[in-house]
Structures are given as C-alpha cells and as structure tokens.
UniProtKB/TrEMBL annotation:
Signal listed as a keyword: yes
GO terms assigned for molecular function: oxidoreductase activity
Chain coiled-coil ranges: none
Gene3D superfamilies, per database record: Glutaredoxin
Gene Ontology process terms (BP): cytochrome complex assembly
Signal peptide: 1-19
Domain Thioredoxin: 25-168
GO cellular component, one term: cell envelope
Protein name (record): TlpA family protein disulfide reductase
Originating organism: Arachidicoccus ginsenosidivorans
Amino acid sequence: MKKLLCFIGGAMLAINLTAQQIKPLSVGDQVPDLTFNHVMNSTKTQFKLSDFKGKLVILDFFGTWCGACIPLVPKLNSLQNKLKDSIQIIVVCDDISNEVVSKFIKKKWNSTTRTIQLPFVLMDSVKFSLFPHRMVPHEVWISPEGKLIAATDESQVTLENLLAAYSNPQIKLKQKVDQMDFNRDLPLLINGNGGNMDRLIHKSIFTKKLEGVPSCAGITLDTINHTRRLYCINSSPVNQLTNVYGISRSKFVLIKNNAVSFIDTMRSSSLKDSMYCYEITIPDTVSKAHYKSIMKNDLEQNLSIKTQLKKYKYPATS
C-alpha cells in the first residue's frame, strides 16, 4: 500500500510540474495537439484537436454554475448545426466530474425537445495553463491550421465572425481581458490590483485620530494617474467641514433639540477630543462642486450629523 501511495503521489507531482511549465499561448501561436478524454454527449469517448484539422475550432469554457453560460449553449449548438462542415465547437467544463456534467446536460437540455449535440469535455490543468482565464464564458478560437486566433467573450461568437475567421484567420476580434493576478482580499486599484487609477470614480477614507501624527491638511496632485487627493489629518469635524463650505471655521453653530449654541472653534477644548482623519481621492477632472458634495455626504454619514448653510446673528462679545 505504501508503494502504491508513493507512486500515485509521484504521478500527481509530475502532472502538476508539467502544467506549471506550460506557458499561456498568444495570438498566432501554434496550439499543441490536445487530447480530450472522457468526452460526453458524443458517440466518441476521446478525440484529439488534430481530428478537426481544416475546421475552425471554438473551445467554449463553461461552468454549470455560470448563469451566462447556460443560455449560450443552445446558441452555439445552432451555430454548429449551420456551419458543421467548417467549424467544431467543444464545450470545456470547469466542473468536478463527468457525472455532474452528464446529469446537468440531461436535465437542462436533452430531456426536452431542444437537444444539444455539442461534445462536452472536462477541463484539465494543461488546458487551463494554455488558455488561462478567471471568468466564463471564455471562448478560444483556433484556426483550421491549428493556430490561436483569439480568446474572446461570448459576444464575439456570431455567425458573421465565425464565417470570417474560417476564411481569414488574421481576423481581428475583441480580445477578452482576464486579470489573473487580481486579489479580491486586497484593496482595489492599490499597486494595480484590479486596474489603474484611471478607473477611479472616487475613494474616501475616514479614521479615528492617529496618535503621534501631527494635524495637517492639504491637496496633492498625481500627474501620472491624473487624480487629486484632499486630506485632513487629526482634524475636528468643524475644521473638516470648512473645506466643504469654504467659510471661516469660527462661524459654526450647533443645533441640538432645537437649541442653538455657537462654537468658538479657536478656543473650544472639547474639539480636541473629537479628532478624525479624512481623505478623498478623485479624478482631477471632477469639478470642485462635485467633490465637495461627496465630502459633505461622507462626513455627514460617518459623523451621523446633518449640516447646512444658514444665517444666524452672532451674539455680541464683551
């Protein structure tokens, strides 16, 4: 038993190393003669990519859990029937077993009048390494000569595009972009996670007082990412709101239970106990009125207050 376990472990390790050494294919690369084992929904149980030489091959990467994949299959089946002499569509399933997929096919389609004739196969590590993706549907186009034409989303799989790709493998299709290094556990757009700052609409941060950090406020411009950052560090809510309304910080009143009290922000020691940090990052094309509106909403939500501009007669001082 120990020898058998060691052998299986060694075999699995060899397969993983082989998959890791395979580099993703680029447009124009020759696709290796892939073997498709455990074929479902077909008279064959195995075939190779070379069996379809002379045809345009579409690998439709699919998941039984994918809402967009399911209605696509009947469409692909119809296209296959129309162009059966020039194309071959193969559904590559990102699922755990033949049994799961076979039951799904029978339940979803082949128990009705809408029978699906497309062959289904399970995805393996080699195919994923050659055609990496994070989202399905994922459509891989392989020319009649066995070269990679494109990797697209499902919108590109039309009758017109299929006919054009069959006759002209140099066709330019809109390539699908999958960010393979995206990490959902990390903040968006930081260090390029999910994209660059040119995708930013706005980002704001609100924190408690930072010990050991001096009070400061200002604006910085990022000329590379074309963003503007406004910040108020260890500042009272009143001081932060002066940036919103653009008025003197000595002209704030507090209304509580319909009672009006005037705040001397220059002298009030109580304000030192309610320090916060706030910053907002926005594209540099955003208007001043727009980003001040965002700031006002952010501060009101985080401080659970409502603010407005209103005239009051300031009491005389002795």
